[in-house]
Amino acid sequence: MNSTTSRKITVAEMAPHIHSFSIGENKVNKLTEWLKGWIEASLKTGKIKPDDLLPAKGELACHIGVSQGTMQNVFRALEDAGFVESKQRIGTCIKNPEQKKSSEKLTSKRELAIETVKKILVENNYKTEDNIPSTRKLAKLTGMADTTVRLAVNNLVAGGILEKKGKSYIIKSLDYRVREISTQTLVEKVAKNIKKYIEQEFKAGDKLPANSVLMKKFNVSIKTIHDAIKLLSKEGIVYTRRGQYGTVVMSDSSVLYNYEKVEQKIRAYILNNSKIGDKLPTIKEFAQNLNTSGKTVKKALDNLAEDGYLMFTRGRYGGTFVTDIPQSGEDAYKWLAINSDFVQN
């Protein structure tokens, strides 16, 4: 798709675009269904065409009167359903309905989260009117992102299984069954396909094509490619460098810079020796043990903090603390052992 030939849809064209919401009504679900209907009807009448760009999330959110986060979740739900596709540095474009019908049906993260949450409720014998764990706690139990779990909970509210009361959610109905989802998520499927592509075409040290090229090759969104590359990075198959370096294949450590090798060693240290809340050795101690400079250790720790595994605090009791544990395999649930001293502090 060439951004110069794509027409940007204006907010004014998307009438009726005035919405009212009842107390407790799920805004994400309501807006998602409205946009699905609008896209389908507009494609049929020729008002819009595939590859036309939707208005920016912030612009549409402001006009409707909802938060940008709400609109972000709406766009994600539309992408899950195959109505739109996110293009990096371009925007969110309308998807060709024929591509939507012919695309492989895979489990979305949201669908997987819905069934996983239902499974937790069943296995823990929750009953009608019981409060369920917070979305943050459910995210930790499932190992999924907070946003994904919130979308799943909102879906269960819309389906009459849960009900929101204040800031909590309670069981409204037990009239549901848990579907066994054995299929892969789209991200996992794409990661597997990229892995095969690497095995056939690349060797250690080779640079992969840009994400925008991979997006077209595998016919998925740029975000799906990004998440798939992230999975392969955790498996040690590729390493993503910032800037012009891109994503590099690594079957051994010879293609890594020194700070990247140190980062991998610290990841292994956290996995094998730490739990959430533990305080790591100082930069000086790591530098001595790993026979490298403090500057190299600091860069490695900064990268791990950016990935969400560490946090830095100052003051008398400050230091570098573990906030998440790198996973060595595909775990269905991530059970967290939290350092009690960390919780108290």
What does this structure look like?
The protein has 345 residues and is mostly helical. It has four domains: 11-102, Winged helix-like DNA-binding domain superfamily/Winged helix DNA-binding domain (Arc Repressor Mutant, subunit A), CATH 1.10.10; 109-171, Orthogonal Bundle (Arc Repressor Mutant, subunit A); 186-254, Winged helix-like DNA-binding domain superfamily/Winged helix DNA-binding domain (Arc Repressor Mutant, subunit A, Orthogonal Bundle); 257-344, Orthogonal Bundle (Arc Repressor Mutant, subunit A), CATH 1.10.10.10. It is built from 14 helices and eight strands. It has helices spanning 27-45, 57-64, 68-80, 97-102, 109-123, 135-142, 146-158, 186-201, 211-218, 222-234, 258-273, 283-290, 294-306, 340-344; strands at 84-87, 91-94, 162-165, 168-171, 238-241, 246-249, 310-313, 319-322. The strands form four sheets. A two-stranded antiparallel ribbon has the order 1-2. Strands 3-4 form a two-stranded antiparallel sheet. The chain has a two-stranded antiparallel sheet with strand order 5-6. It is globular, with a radius of gyration of 23 Å. The model is unreliable at 101-105 and 329-345 (pLDDT under 50).
Layout of helices and strands, plus pairs?
Layout lengths: L26 H19 L11 H8 L3 H13 L3 E4 L3 E4 L2 H6 L6 H15 L11 H8 L3 H13 L3 E4 L2 E4 L14 H16 L9 H8 L3 H13 L3 E4 L4 E4 L8 H16 L9 H8 L3 H13 L3 E4 L5 E4 L17 H5 L1
Antiparallel strand pairs: 1-2, 3-4, 5-6, 7-8
Helix pairs in contact: 1-3, 2-3, 5-7, 6-7, 8-10, 9-10, 11-13, 12-13
